[in-house]
Amino acid sequence: MGMNPVKNRFRYLVVFLGLACLTSILSNYIIINFTFICMKDDPTGIEMSDNGTTYNRYDYSVAEKSAIVWAVAVGTILGTGPINYSYVRYGARIPFFIAGIVSAFATILTPFGAYLGLPYLLALRFAQGLAYSADFAAIGIVCVRWAPLAQTGLFISILTSFSPAATVMTNAASGWLCKSSYGWQSAFYVHGAAGFLIFAAWIYFYNDDPQFSAKVSAKELTTIQKDKTQAHIERDSFVPYWEICKNRVILTVWINSFFEMTTLILLLTYSPIYFRKVLDFSVVETGMLISLSAVAHMPAKLISGWLSDRQFLSERIRMWFFNTSSVGLAGIMCVTLAYIPVTWKYTSVVMFSIVYTLMGTNCGGFYKCGTFAARQYAHFVLAMIQFMKCIALFAAPATVAIFVSDESSHSQWGHVYILNGSLMFIANILFFPIATDQPQPFTFVTRKSVEEEKKKNQLA
């Protein structure tokens, strides 16, 4: 049986299937960021108000759009705890499958919800948020269970490229479907249908324990488990939460991820509006340029993930290097966005691309530091990075709400870029003295060690 190439490389099937699932859930919730542009022109949405003026039921105000973005964030925040617990308890196979199906259903129902009115749409967005909260702990579990330690950077880089993958595919597809004869509704139906197919494959192929999977060869299992401790290999539902939360290495990882995520979400969410209103590109140009500006993020992620696993320089110096490019340097570039004149519109597009590309190198920085420091508890550390993303979903629109009253004002957007970029730069400076690749003391705290400690205290 040792000759079966699939069984000897099954971890790659798992990681790419994981990527497809993560992308599907994120795509489902970001479609609307793009279809906003087309929905307001939908002739079927024109209604007559009581005083005789016409309005379009699909033309949302800035406040309503914020609510539509925030509904997902609320769902994600409320979902993170319970879903994390279900992962620790049951593994990722079933909980992630349920999340994927919920997301696909909510997506297919979105056009109907939008037709019925804002409260119905917000309820569906909330359901998508609940499903989305399953994304990050899933990355952690797939890495902890299936990634060989020597390929940690590569696995994190593949799995975390779900954000750019979703952005590129969804913006391009939605831009095209929006303008087609099928209308903006078709973007939701196509994405929803794809979600059902992808998650059917997940439930069929995925197993939380490589050692019990009939699809994995003995050789492959040895590769996956090399250098892992027994505590790392055995799945235990014990997690020393408090010990992890007060660890300074982990706190530094979380601070860096928070400021980086906030800026990334800010750019991804508001770039369609910025390109359209400030830089004055057409709808189709906006769709294409945003997809293009985010394209380089993905190769940057994969290359930096692969590079960060190569044994040149020490692990710690590699972490410093990748964290500086993805948080420090990206922060400086974000500040420069504020100083590029409006008339240099293509220069702005290039600068957006540079910021996205630099941010793509984060898997060799704080992600890897968190995974190495937390070892078998890495899924919790990565799930909390997801939680940072939820808070970022509030923080990013909040900075826009504070500074931007006129969406076409270059200087108002400039304040937002300066604030976010500066915070990233500061977070990166904190990373230098604290980053490490060594397992932290809490990794030696297991259920067994806690019980032994209790026994010792009782005897004493």
UniProtKB/TrEMBL annotation:
Cellular component, GO annotation: membrane
Keyword set, alphabetical order: Membrane, Transmembrane, Transmembrane helix
Gene3D superfamilies xrefs: MFS general substrate transporter like domains
Protein localization: Membrane
Signal peptide from the UniProt entry: none
GO MF, one example: transmembrane transporter activity
Stretches that traverse the bilayer: 12-32, 67-87, 94-118, 130-147, 154-176, 188-206, 253-275, 287-308, 320-340, 346-367, 379-404, 416-435
Chief location of this protein within or outside the cell: membrane
Stretches assigned to the Major facilitator superfamily (MFS) profile domain: 13-439
Record keyword Disulfide bond present: no
Bilayer disposition of the protein: Multi-pass membrane protein
PROSITE patterns referenced in this protein's UniProt entry, alphabetically: MFS
Domain of life from the UniProt record: Eukaryota
InterPro entries: MFS (IPR011701), MFS_dom (IPR020846), MFS_trans_sf (IPR036259)
Protein name, as recorded: Major facilitator superfamily (MFS) profile domain-containing protein
Organism (species): Caenorhabditis remanei
